[in-house]
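Researcher: I'd like a structural prediction for the single chain below. Treat it as a standalone chain; there are no partners to consider.
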Amino acid sequence: MESARVGKRGAIVVPARLRKRFGIEEGSMVTAEEKDDGILIRPAVLVPVERYSPERKAEFLLSTATTDADYRRARKTVRKLGLDPDSIPHRQPA
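Model: Treating it as a single chain, here is the predicted structure.
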């Protein structure tokens, strides 16, 4: 166990050995989780968020249809997006 001093604005210096072990560098993100017996600080895992274009949404709708009725509904929804379902690369249900 190692200790650290709390500085201005609540800043805590994580001991170098622990920073190295867990890959925490200057500018790294961490999470702070409240626990019954204290605070758990861990390296954060950041996952980029993908924004889908209308064409990509249409591709998902058309390609994930599993029945003929589902595929017809997907085509109708794609048309509501202002797109031609036949111009979107996709696979049709078997």
